[in-house]
UniProtKB/TrEMBL annotation:
Region (Disordered): 1-49
Chain intervals with Basic and acidic residues compositional bias: 40-49
InterPro entries, alphabetized: NAD(P)-bd_dom_sf, Sc_DH/Rdtase_CS, SDR_fam
Keyword terms, alphabetized: Oxidoreductase
SUPFAM superfamilies (alphabetical): NAD(P)-binding Rossmann-fold domains
Pfam families: adh_short_C2
PANTHER family according to UniProt: NADPH-DEPENDENT ALDEHYDE REDUCTASE 1, CHLOROPLASTIC, NADPH-DEPENDENT ALDEHYDE REDUCTASE-LIKE PROTEIN, CHLOROPLASTIC-RELATED
Protein name per its UniProtKB record: NAD(P)-dependent dehydrogenase (Short-subunit alcohol dehydrogenase family)
Amino acid sequence: MASTDQLTVVDPVTRFPDITPPQQDQSEPGLDADLIPGTDRGEDSYRGTGRLEGRKALITGADSGIGAAVAIAFAREGADVAMNYLPQEQEDAEHVADVIEQAGRRAILLPGDLVDADVCRQLVEDAVAQLGGLDALVNNAGRQIAVESLEDLEEEQWMTTYEVNIHAMYRITKAALKHLSAGSTIVNTTSVQAYEPSTTLIDYASTKAAINNFSKGIAQQLAPKGIRVNAVAPGPIWTPLQVSDGQPKEALPHFGKNTPLGRAGQPTELAPAYVFLTSPESSYVLGETLHVNGGMPTP
Ligand code: NAD
Ligand code: MG
């Protein structure tokens, strides 16, 4: 989509088109391959500058959307990448793996459902074995299903949202710790929803507030070991999450238009935040939440 790289000075209002997505529906988890309009994950534009040379990264939800953009950027910055995603997302994952390999880096495909505690733990071991170590973790997988009222928010949805967004992050982070040495980094994906919860996203938004809080607490605990933990809080970003019941259907054409920039963000616009927080250049940045949200005010 973008013809210029992320280091070229352009007007952020018009860097990407102001999209008006048609109403559409995909079953959960949704595919980038079927999204209308398609998204920009940086395939044709992200320019690496050697900031993650030789790093070994595990990224969850790396098949599509923000995770895919982060995986592509990490590879172009010099990292090998282990990718977790759901088995139904193999098509999206293989596309991202191709882009990583074209950058001359290794892409390790590790599909698995993070609702399963054993899968979370095994994922870390498989990533470590195949990468030959681990020094960068990005907890990015997330589940978002809009429900109009608390009366309709079923126990099963509440539990599954917390399993994927919170319990998996705890399990993966805990399993990764014994492999992480000084200089390693963890970046968690929270949301503007942590501060401004939508009425339709009570379960999801509360997990995002918890992710933010977890990140700030664990950052202090791990700081003396030289392991830095931070978070990124995206605003409205056009990804498959939104069309697999993440938003009420009638909201899709207006998606992202209420931001000061007046448009939805593209996944590749998130990548530099994750690169910065993973790169050694952010050595004095810990427990921070970097907001990438088109200008929506945050606390
Ligand atoms: P996405 O659908 O492309 O990515 C979410 C990924 O989560 C999926 O690709 C899937 O692989 C993974 N996932 C979901 N359930 C899983 C499970 N049970 N097991 C394993 N993996 C599972 O959408 P995205 O918008 O790029 O989402 C990435 C992160 O960004 C999420 O944490 C989301 O909450 C967060 N976020 C997105 C937005 C936005 O507007 N798109 C805004 C704020 C935060
Ligand atoms: Mg996906």
